[in-house]
Amino acid sequence: MFFKINEATVVDVLGVDAVTILNNLCTANLKLLDVGHGVETFVTEVRGRTLAHGCLFKNSTGFRFFGSPGQAEVLLGHIDRYTIREDCHPAEVESWAPGYLVSGDGAARLTKEWGLVAGEPPLLANQSYDLQGHVVQVYEIPWLGSGGWLCMPEDPQHGLLEFFAQQSIAEGDAVEFEKRRIAARFPWYGVDIDDSQLPQEADRNEQTISFTKGCYLGQETVARLDALGQVQKKIVRWQIDTTEPIAPGTDLLDGEKKVGKITSSVVDQGKTFALGFARRSHFDPGSQARCGDYEATVL
Which ranges form a coiled coil (predicted)? Predict the structure, then answer.
């Protein structure tokens, strides 16, 4: 299945010093990246709070960032703030849309037909493909789980839709996108997480955080939390015994004690699934709470 992506944060960070500046602001170790590879990462501020979340890919002139919509202004300002005389130039890419995110069986078919090679986790891959004379940049993006490919054609007359039809890769809608995103436990910045969270609270440590790279902005807080092992809340996937979506911000209670909060939800096959925060007492699968009139269970 493919999904037409009309809204996202796409930022280029160019210049010979781009890797130095970005590595000082990100939880992942960007200095280990070769051209054609990327990594999921958080951009943090001095207290370790998350200012942005997405995937950074290295290319021959710098880096390209992909993330949920609405992150560009803060990201650009943050990079500018910590760039003095370095050759580092961030800019929002405004003419990219649309892109096409291929997921599931469709992504497997694309991998086979185009000879795509995924990165060795936690690395992500970026390759180009010549589709009958039209160059398509292909980025490995985990928004809907592992194995997804974001196709970014360089030519408006790209022929991608015809290719998808030939391969019987159907188009999915916004509801199906949410089903897959929530099933993949991928938090959407600005919806599930924001600048009040620490990176570990998104529960994507293996994908996003290097605990050996050395100093970066907010590293002391992130390292201390890792050393103490005392994350007090994190994103988990909930199943709620109702066939109605749950409003974001709905509290989850154990008796009278608040033990979590729903951030996004979707109805799928007669059940409601959600992402939301859980307190430490409810990290484990099978933990239960009340969500309004309904029972909620951590998956």
Answer: none
